[in-house]
Amino acid sequence: MKTILRIALVLTIVGAINWGLIGFFRFDLVASLFGGQLAPISRVVYALVGLSGLACLTLLFMPIGDEAEETMGSGQRNFDYSTEFGEEEDFSRYRDKDDDRDKENKE
């Protein structure tokens, strides 16, 4: 299934580039490569790009990133809100020393 989705994604990107060229430069790359918009091979390419766009709709509902492989079968997401800095240090031992110093300064 992954291979089919990758092929569909490539064809969708080709279609997006072609639409960008049409929009910005009025140049249809597929038609120019395959003999016009009504050429049978051009129509096949247009149809494949359209079907690929429909196949890529499933990508909207798939998990993204590292969680994708873990959660594909389970149906549940594992949210990890930890940071790269690790555990927070316990500063209470420093506070006790500061309190002792404040007492000495007041006396």
Describe the structure.
This protein is mainly alpha-helical and 107 residues long. Helices cover 63% and strands 0% of the residues. The chain contains 5 helices and no strands. It has helices at 2-25, 29-34, 40-56, 67-71, 92-106. Helix 1 packs across helix 3 (40-56). The radius of gyration is 29 Å and the shape is rod-shaped. The model has no long low-confidence stretch (mean pLDDT 81).
Output the keywords.
rod-shaped; about 110 residues; mainly alpha
Task: Tell me the Rg in angstroms.
Answer: 29 Å
What's the count of strands? 0
- Main structural class: mainly alpha
Q: If helices are DSSP runs of H or I spanning 4 or more residues, what is the number of helices?
A: 5
Overall shape: it is rod-shaped
The topology string of helices and strands comes to HHHHH
Please write out the topology:
Elements: H1 2-25, H2 29-34, H3 40-56, H4 67-71, H5 92-106
Helix pairs in contact: 1-3
Summarize the structure.
This protein has 5 helices and no strands.
